[in-house]
Amino acid sequence: MATLHSRASARLMLSPAVLLLLAWMIIPLCLTVYFSFLRYNLLMPGEETFTGWTNYYFFITDPSFKDAIINTLTLLGGVLLITVVGGILFALLLDQPMWGQGIVRIMVIAPFFVMPTVSALVWKNMFMNPVNGVFAHIALALGLQPYDFLSQIPWASIIWIVSWQWLPFATLILLTALQSLDQEQLEAAEMDGASWLNRFWFIMLPHLSRAITVVVLIQTIFLLSVFAEILVTTNGGPGTATTNLTYLIYVQSLLQYDVGAGSAGGVIAIILANIVAIFLMRMIGKNLDA
Amino acid sequence: MARAISTKRKAINTVAAWSLGFLIFFPILWIAILSFKTEIDAIKGPLDVLSAIWTTESYSAVQERSDYLKHFTNSVIIALGSTLLGLIIAVPAAWAMAFVPARRTKDVLMWMLSTKMLPPVGVLIPIYLIFRDTGLLDTRIGLVLVLMLINLPIIIWMLYTYFREIPGEILEAARMDGASLGKEVLYILTPMAIPGMASTVLLNIILAWNEAFWTLNLTAAKAAPLTAFIASYSSPEGLFYAKLSAASIMAIAPILIMGWFSQKQLVRGLTFGAVK
Amino acid sequence: MSIKRTLLGITITAATLTALGSAASAEELTIATVNNADMIIMQKLSPEWEKKTGNKLNWVVLEENVLRQRVTTDIATKGGSFDIVTIGAYETPIWGEKGWLNTLDDLGEAYDYADIFEPVRNGLSVKGSLYAVPFYAESSFTFYRKDLFEKAGVEVGKDQITYDQFAQMVARVHDPDNGIYGTCQRGKAGWGENMAFIGPMVNAFGGRWFDMDWQPQLTSEPWKKAITYYVDLLSKYGPPGAPANGHNENRALFADGKCATWIDATSAAGYIYNPKDSRVADKTGFFQAPKEVTDKGTGWFWAWALAIPSSSAKVDAAKDFLKWATSKAYIEQVGESEGWVAAPPGTRASTYANPKYQEAAPFADTVKNAILATNPADPTLEQVPYTGVQFVAIPEFQGIGNYVGQQISAALAGQQSVDQALENAQQFAVREMTKAGYLK
């Protein structure tokens, strides 16, 4: 289908995007890599000296580094699990005949529209706060001791908050994919005696695989750099329980004003993200092909 | 072949769905309720809060203190501007990748997505320096550019997915009928791709509206959008639950309303994308 | 015809000159500030200054940590985004020394520099030059519930008590079955949050952050004693969720009547004493923050001040605003329009000499004494190479203070022992100081 003529014009059409993204990526990336080799403290400008791999060394041997990596990956896994499984369940439910489907749909989608900082603040202050929060009041009403979510299970609490924000997105995409499923195929299988579970596993799930891929890919991109929620709720604590890689970079470059170390962290974050991306593409990339 | 669904089954579905939906929606409902209470009442237990008096004093306090209109206008300009600019660049790119696939197309796509994986915190200083030198600090243009760049990969990628759904034969037929490239894109491609483009546009507007890192760090007073408006009420010296709730409602209401009216569009676009 | 032309010419010239004239004096200033109650009042009253001078103010109001990060980024990169910034007693000496701020010694006779309390002036100066004018200043003292103390038969004398005595008092008024917790203290991690309280407490126990060779002292005896005391006190007599409670949360708790005692900022007194905001306005008393083995550095010192970055091009207009916002006249105005209890505290002797202020704020003298007793230049039992009571005025302190705060917060949450927390803290501090070049 593609003639030589259209190949050339295709390249022309592609070039603005590629050039822009290239510039956007290359310029800050180069600066970041450059800074990562400098001893550059924001508060002492003009005193930068070349320092080789020191920044990388310090960043990796930072006692928080290991925790940050683990936290980053557990958040990714946790939220993906909750949103994909939850999204499928919600989609299955919303696909059923009922009254007022439109309203339920908008209720389920709503959290996606709320700013991450606002969601985090609302959850932290109005729900999870052990003195004034709704959960605390409910616990007291039931005669239980209020539970301090953000001190006792901080990372799980944040995973929950982030999942709440992304569940609507996953549900929406999975629901629309579900609604395009061919009913006849399902009914034929049912008449052949297939149980619901079999029908789900062998017919519905494969059909949803592309939608699941879309959800996983887009969410991964955002989940790797979750930041606002942590900043607003726990500031990375207690200890390093809620510090992920992005937050660690923030601590280094903006709290300690060590731009060199923060830049080194940034480079490491890109490497990690690319590893995750390659891994993901290997696993589910084939689903993208029609 | 519609099978008869029992009313009982339908009722169960309705109850189940509504309960779950309500649970998910509850935090937002709660903010809305709190925004109409006084500060002292806002931190009480749920029953006390519900029975306390309703008031609009938080809204008026917020309106008095911060310029909602200015922030709102900035948010609109930035969200729409970055989306439009992104579309102009992304449509040709996605077209090229969808209809003239090369061996490396997949890799290019993945590379574009990977540019999104650079944590903004890590590049704040370099970007800040560049903006300072080019005079883009605290300008709406500057923000439009940055937000366009960070969302461009998503726009291209979603458009690519939708364009691939369009049967190539139709385009070929048009070409054989003598249509030029421009005509092909404009009269054939665009109408078929509108649902997909619509949902991409909507998603991008939401992402740009809620973006809270660059919009806070690259603006001061002139170009500050609603994210900065909210930031001035958060975690302050003195809990401002009621005012924060009022400010939040004022900030998310436009997007929520837009989402409500366009949900059919959003759904149709995504459905179109998944239809075989 | 020529008359018409002449008239036209004159009109146009006049109009142009007027436009030019007003354009020359109409500046637009960008001001960055914290969203504290006092600053919000300043924002509310500022249209008056705008009308008087024809200048316009563009406000950027943010939460303290975000503001600090934003302003520091801009000032360090000479971004020039702000003409007036609100900074604290921590940044002022550091930035002043680097030449990032304009000096403010030329605001005129009428400004009356001598009226400003000496510790406050010193805290915002470097080598005798003032780099920021104080908007409000605070120290720390102990809030207590007079009614609960009376009920439990606890007496409060005039002398400064020790932390041991304090713990005994607290034990007697602790009544969780009736929703009263013996004491509420900051537990939320942060160099300006829990460490602001813990710092002076460590000073009282005879501890210090660094010795004269900049070696961190976090595993020394005074630190161990102080932190063990802190964790014990709050675990036994504090409210649930203490590790997540910062200043705001505790203030709400105290105002709601749930705490019997609270050691925190003097600037919160206005709020606690205001019946519109607090349920215990008429039941609250104040006494000095406790000592232990020494009374040095037992009350902290903090001031929020207005400064002008050296990158600003509108220094004259900015100075005019600074003069207005921290003048006696401004304080008068706040007193008259918002109520004297809301007047910016801790800066000028004239405020405290004003009978109207004394009447509206019975805590005024205690606050004044607390502030006058602070001495950031000599905060500890043993000698130190730094200044600062509850912070250390070096750029590296933010990161170190935050990390130590995290560790102690985790210890309070029961996730690690006090010894482990201090061990981690010490290692981190040594690492950072080595990285920064203080230690070899």
Overall number of structural domains of chain B: 2
Backbone shape of chain B:
globular
- Main CATH class of the largest domain in chain B: Mainly Alpha
Q: Rg of chain B to the nearest angstrom?
A: 23 Å
Radius of gyration of chain C, CA atoms, in whole angstroms: 24 Å
Q: How far apart lie the N and C ends of chain C?
A: 87 Å
Number of helices of chain B: 13
CATH topology of the largest domain in chain B: MetI-like fold
Stretches of chain C where pLDDT falls below 50 for ≥5 residues? Answer: 18-24
Task: Please characterize this protein's 3D structure.
The complex is a heterotrimer of chains A (290), B (276) and C (440). The mean pLDDT of chain A is 80. In chain A, helix 3 crosses helix 12. Chain A has 290 residues and is mainly alpha-helical. Chain A is globular and about 75 Å long. Chain A has 13 helices and 2 strands. In chain A, strands 1-2 form a two-stranded antiparallel ribbon. Helix content of chain A is 73%, strand content 1%. Chain B is mainly alpha-helical and 276 residues long. Chain B folds into 2 domains: 52 residues, no CATH class; 168 residues, MetI-like (MetI-like fold), CATH 1.10.3720. Chain B is 76% helix and 0% strand. Chain B contains 13 helices and no strands. In chain B, helix 8 crosses helix 10 and helix 9 packs antiparallel against helix 10. The C terminus of chain B is likely disordered. Chain C has 440 residues and is α+β, with helices and mostly antiparallel strands. Chain C has a 5-stranded mixed beta sheet with strand order 2-1-3-10-6. A 3-stranded antiparallel beta sheet of chain C has the order 8-7-9. In chain C, strand 4 and strand 5 form a beta hairpin. Chain C is globular and about 95 Å long. Chains A and B meet through helix 1, helix 3, helix 4, helix 5 and helix 6 of A and helix 1, helix 5, helix 6, helix 7 and helix 8 of B.
